[in-house]
Amino acid sequence: MDTFSLMKESVLHSKNEDPAPTEFKAQLVAVARAGRSIESLAREYVPCPPTIHDWVQQAGAIDCERDALLTKCRAGQAAPVTP
Length: 83
Prior knowledge:
It is built from four helices and no strands.
């Protein structure tokens, strides 16, 4: 069984908690961005379409924030963030 299938199983078994591990969310976002419809992902992997849509939107906002920070760092307007 591949990792994606294992994550699908974990979502099916824990509906009262935050059932979707970060990796699972990231994989669904990547598949949606690659062109698969949110509705088809929802049918196959349980989270409802609005949830998957929110994950895609959140990922986009994080990407924009990261890009803006990188642009500022390159321009010398912000100190680089170290992990």
